[in-house]
Amino acid sequence: MSLLHRTLFALALLPALLSAQNLTAPLLSGSWQSTYHNPAMLHFLPGEVTVGLPGVANDLQLENIHYNDLFVDSGSGGRRILSLAALAALTDDRNEVQDVFSIETLGVALRRGPFSLSAYHRLRVEGEAEYRGALVDLFVLGNAPFIGTTLEISPRGRVVSFQELGLGLSYAINDVISLGGRLKYLAGTSTVSTAPGGSLRLTTGSENYALTLEQDLTLRTVGALEYNGQLNEVELIYEPNRLSPGELFSGNTGLGMDLGVAADLGRLRLNFSATDLGARISWKEEVTTLRFSGKDTFTGLDVLEDLLRDSISLDEALDSLVLTFDPETNADPYRTELSPRYYLGGEYDLTSRLTAGALLVVEERLGSTTAAVAVTGRYAATDWLRVGLNVNHRAGLRTNVGMHLYATPGRFQFFASSDKLFTLLGTGSPALSGIRLGAGLTFGSRADAPASARPGSR
């Protein structure tokens, strides 16, 4: 068990540790948050000027893991403790982790006649990984149960952190249809990723318990590792949520585009958008690439279990094994491409106070196309307060229920939403949670704004 494997295991779980995709905001006509998903939604904003205030969003998905099953009774005082053995029992051969996180700083939208212009800044973190159940088993059980077998333990995935400056334009063709587009400047801050096609095969010999590791893996990092030629001196410095203005002007930059269309048919509102089209970041500065290759054999009984037993055995084992893993290194530039997302949704006012909506989101994750569906119901409790429930389903995960709130007292807008209500209330059910908080200010009433978006329209 080398520092290489500890680093790779951390990479596999890193998206789950990030501190935004949301299935409610794209439907909320008139809110500043909806414009992040569709630039044509600028047409629905109620004021001539809208200021987007700071907000935060996070969407986490852990496939096959359920919070409640990770905890067992300790047998004393009725306490429940985390069980690594339970984690090993829950994982399949392949397990996915995804997290989409953003810090929204400031934005502004201006409406003049049929034109709307917007600009904003935010920090985004996109993380996706797939880890092997065998890797979890090795950490939890050691390698004694796998004598005479070969395990594939290589994870794959990436976490990329970047700042985004967006400049959008929306044009209302008529009172019904508006078109929008947005150009985005992307400033990369840090990233960790594995190159496609990597492999790590670990064999425990049946006669002398020798461990044989076949390596064919490339680990790419920017602003995440300090490597000075020896693995036992690698320092992990990755801070995906770091927000530094100076990094807007580094050499790690790229561009992307969003396109959208929105239609206001009175009681019915429809929208379609595609985000992160052609989005990519070229990494040229602070690049560290580690290439692990070859086949190495070393002896020892249940080495992996020994490594986890205490820090002394870990240090001794690393001192003896670190020379075995001597990666090739380079600082060659490379490029990260962001996966586009497609949104199709609509809202319908059933009554003057009750609104129903539906949303379909399609995206590419780890090379596969996946879909998510949400159905919402929202009630206008007062002229300025709307509350609702949303039923969400993502491919490979259980259907879950969330809730949202949208308040518009005076010029102020406040939006709060959770895609997984019960995750916030306790530790039961699936390891999935989504939460979004945001606010805005509106100035100057628009007589031509959709009725559903104007304060006091209910």
From TrEMBL:
It comes from the Bacteria. The keyword Signal applies. Residues 1-25 form the signal peptide. Residues 39-419 form the DUF5723 domain. Coiled coil: none annotated. InterPro entries: DUF5723. The keyword Calcium does not apply. Keywords: Signal. This is DUF5723 domain-containing protein.
